[in-house]
């Protein structure tokens, strides 16, 4: 065929559909997002954008990343957002104890007494009113599977190392993951309450892996803590905020939401239940949404305290229902303005996933793009 719809073309050339519709309008053509364009119209638009013949264009029209990455909204609306933190470290070094301890002592201020619900992530409010989001998906699973799917959700990693045990294989693994993802590491030297604690040994051993403590002239923040007694945890959270400030984490609460799946499962009564981390924009009940290869409308949202909420801003984890299928951890989600587009993108992604299990993207140049249409 020698035709494409506006949305297909927008994906191929990486431009907003609305922009294309406007251009067509200026050329005297009234169109909608699903308007079928003939070869002449396509060439006009391409020429107008000055799309180079050599330019590489993704032909995968079901690629959510195009929507995910398309900058939207007014940059002036961008605001500071809470950091998203992952805790990593060797087995038994105290990751779960630390997550529980932070959660129990810092349950969202003013919400004390709320029934905490396990949704795979939670948010705490630190003394100065700033928030921090923790992913509490067990082990390294969250980090590794999400990264494997191309999702980058973590802003800061807390590397837990037991002071009575030192650097172990999974400590090194965690360091490598964080480095590969270019996520800053804060070292929590745990179990300081134990008589056998030897923090100097931990510092010494980590030096060999490129993590040199500030005390020794390096740049890595080390915080001695006891996840069991709670000692040092306030200091640790302060350091997380310090590192986040340097990173200048920003998001635009006014745009349509995008983000990633933290975890998801099928519930007998509720159907597909997914915990989403909103990475940019604001997610609202009723939003038409595509999540991985599933889609629908956000039917209900529950926060980490088990309470029903109507909206969730940047860096907020929420559990949602309303999807037609169960997505996977690390899948991305994108909210669309209208349900029709969400359905169209969702359905084409679902059918593509069925037909083509290979995740390979076919890359073509504009030169042979027209031949393939
Ligand atoms: P994980 O495998 O990294 O999640 O480690 P856990 O949080 O399950 O902790 C393993 C064991 O170490 C448990 O028995 C904890 O009670 C204990 N533990 C964790 N943190 C501390 C600490 O700060 N001090 C002491 N004495 N024990 C701790
Ligand atoms: Mg654990």
UniProtKB/TrEMBL annotation:
Coiled coil residues, start to end: none
Binding locations of GTP: 89-96, 136-140, 190-193
Ranges for domain Tr-type G: 80-250
Localization annotation: Cytoplasm
Recorded family membership: Belongs to the TRAFAC class translation factor GTPase superfamily. Classic translation factor GTPase family. IF-2 subfamily.
Function: One of the essential components for the initiation of protein synthesis. Protects formylmethionyl-tRNA from spontaneous hydrolysis and promotes its binding to the 30S ribosomal subunits. Also involved in the hydrolysis of GTP during the formation of the 70S ribosomal complex.
Name this protein carries in UniProt: Translation initiation factor IF-2
Annotated organism of origin: Psychrobacillus insolitus
């Amino acid at each position: 065929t020698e035709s494409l719809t506006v949305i297909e073309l927008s994906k191929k050339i990486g431009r907003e559909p609305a922009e294309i519709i406007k251009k067509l309008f200026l050329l005297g053509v009234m169109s909608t997002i699903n308007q079928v364009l003939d070869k002449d119209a396509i060439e006009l638009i391409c020429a107008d954008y000055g799309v180079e013949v050599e330019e590489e264009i993704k032909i995968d029209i079901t690629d959510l990343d195009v929507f995910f990455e398309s900058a939207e909204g007014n940059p002036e609306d961008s605001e500071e957002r809470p950091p998203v933190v992952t805790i990593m470290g060797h087995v038994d070094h105290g990751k779960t104890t630390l997550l529980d301890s932070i959660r129990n002592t810092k349950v969202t201020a003013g919400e004390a007494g709320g029934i905490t619900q396990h949704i795979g992530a939670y948010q705490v409010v630190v003394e100065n009113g700033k928030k921090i989001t923790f992913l509490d998906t067990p082990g390294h699973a969250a980090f590794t599977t999400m990264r494997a799917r191309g999702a980058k959700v973590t802003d800061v990693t807390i590397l837990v190392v037991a002071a009575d045990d030192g650097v172990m294989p999974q400590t090194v693994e965690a360091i490598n993951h964080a480095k590969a993802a270019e996520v800053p590491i804060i070292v929590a030297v745990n179990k300081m309450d134990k008589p056998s604690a030897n923090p100097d040994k931990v510092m010494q051993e980590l030096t060999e892996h490129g993590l040199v403590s500030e005390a020794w002239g390096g740049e890595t923040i080390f915080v001695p803590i006891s996840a069991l007694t709670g000692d040092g945890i306030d200091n640790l959270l302060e350091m997380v905020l310090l590192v986040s400030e340097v990173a200048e984490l920003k998001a635009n609460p006014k745009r349509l939401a995008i983000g990633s799946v933290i975890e998801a499962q099928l519930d007998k009564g509720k159907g597909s239940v997914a915990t989403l981390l909103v990475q940019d924009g604001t997610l609202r009940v009723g939003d038409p949404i595509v999540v991985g290869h599933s889609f629908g409308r956000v039917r209900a949202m529950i926060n980490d305290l088990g309470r029903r909420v109507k909206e969730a801003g940047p860096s907020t984890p929420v559990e949602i229902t309303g999807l037609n299928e169960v997505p996977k951890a690390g899948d991305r989600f994108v909210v669309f303005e209208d349900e029709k587009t969400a359905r169209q993108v969702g359905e084409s992604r679902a059918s593509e996933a069925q037909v083509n299990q290979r995740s390979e993207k076919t890359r073509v140049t504009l030169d042979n793009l027209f031949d393939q249409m």
